[in-house]
Amino acid sequence: MDARQTDKSKLPSRHVTEGPERAPHRSYLYAMGLTTEQIHQPLVGVASCWNEAAPCNISLMRQAQAVKKGVAAAKGTPREFCTITVTDGIAMGHGGMRASLPSREVIADSVELTIRGHSYDALVGLAGCDKSLPGMMMAMVRLNVPSIFIYGGSILPGSFRGRPVTVQDLFEAVGKVAVGDMSLDDLDELERVACPSAGACGAQFTANTMATVSEAIGLALPYSAGAPAPYEIRDQFCAAAGEKVMELIAKNIRPRDIVTRKALENAAATVAASGGSTNAALHLPAIAHECGIEFTLFDVAEIFRKTPYIADLKPGGRYVAKDMFEVGGIPLLMKTLLDHGYLHGDCLTVTGRTIAENLAKVAWNPDQDVVRPADQPITVTGGVVGLKGNLAPEGAIVKVAGMPASSQVFTGPARVFDGEEACFEAVQNRTYKPGEVLVIRYEGPKGGPGMREMLSTTAALYGQGMGDKVALITDGRFSGATRGFCVGHVGPEAAIGGPIGLLRDGDIITLDAIKGTLDVALSDEELAQRRAAWTPRGNAATSGYLWKYAQTVGPAVNGAVTHPGGARETQSYADI
């Protein structure tokens, strides 16, 4: 068939490439060297979060070229573009972290606008760091054009005096220096070897957690999210994705055919089973919101409660993402969950087949101990637990992977800090006391604004040997690299008068990850009196993007989203 005869009557790009009235539009495409055949083929957006900000993004442009070759080989026309990324490891511990969660919305919005503005027919999205993964997946389900997600891959572990290390060791080393357990010379040596390659943080922190989600939810090709960034096999996955997205166009398989309620439950199950980041309880509701599906923090927590923890991955375990890939990858984890009834096998994926069909030939690897069989778990409930109580009526989340049951209940007096910096200073100066519950508030989506992560503080505590002697709660977030009794996403947040904003030093707080509760020993009457006396406080975001974000962002329980979502749509972009 001649390229001019390609049926684009239902594809968005017809608005740019077809008919005599589009001659001016086509002239721009000819200016970039496209042929007549290429102009009249489906136009496929190849979006990456490439930048030189951090190693997690640095390989994405190379991988995008492989995607483009795959698209072209399947008679599509790739159109590459980049969007932003804010890298949490570099934004951590200072005001830059306020840009992290808002960047998720900018990524989704900017990809949407680029696809809409240029009438592309499909999307292959490459992302490498924390918020860029959910941001790219949110754009896919929002636009609802045939799409495939590609993770840029994890970093390789470093080696420090013969011991494998990750950036988690470096954050905790800061605490060791503060108490004299590590010299500045040793710290300097460690920082030079902790991150030896391109790729995202190597353990089951937020990036690898959301990479696991991408396969489990059905938006990524099997095995593609596990291969480390330096591995040449990544280019093969990328080329295959470019070819496969053309099949999705032909079959009209769209993201919302794939991301269903069952698929979201599958994603939550793999987070729990892998001891993944608490941030998944923020991102899964946000992805669901784009589809018009109600799937809140409480829905995520219920799946966590029912799913066994089986992957022995850092920060609570022994291994990193590279290790899991080399013993069978994410499909190995998914296969044992499916075999024991923890996954829905009938969910469609970007392969055009179901989860069960994709996993049919995956054989169990008995010669490894990275992933356990689902009927022989590390613990019978997931590595992440949802909490609720009079201190968190809208819920909270805590990562318990690697914590013994004896450490999953904590009662102590509150030590209240308005902002992370005040708490970090107390930790560095060791002016806190064992047995206290450190409360970091006014760090929520609106109050921060931006819902900062608190890894610098928690890692410093562990470096001081105090990680199991205090607890932390915040209306902000904790990094996927955080370990210890650290409760995030406490809602309602302090900035809107939530109970966490009413706490005073000395209030007795009980955290119980076994029962799933978070309470303060105050009566309803006392809380009401304090609420009546409470007055809002401002923050430094009085203009610019953070101000705009604070005006629109919703509560953490629903994913901290900024627009009405798929439920309010009257027409999706894919149907224009």
UniProtKB/TrEMBL annotation:
Pfam families referenced in this protein's UniProt entry, alphabetically: ILV_EDD_C, ILVD_EDD_N
Active-site residues, Swiss-Prot/TrEMBL: S479 (proton acceptor)
EC number annotated for this UniProt entry: 4.2.1.9
Enzyme class: lyase
Catalyzed chemical reaction(s): (2R,3R)-2,3-dihydroxy-3-methylpentanoate = (S)-3-methyl-2-oxopentanoate + H2O; (2R)-2,3-dihydroxy-3-methylbutanoate = 3-methyl-2-oxobutanoate + H2O
Domain Dihydroxy-acid/6-phosphogluconate dehydratase C-terminal: 369-560
Record-given protein name: Dihydroxy-acid dehydratase
Organism of provenance: Methylorubrum aminovorans
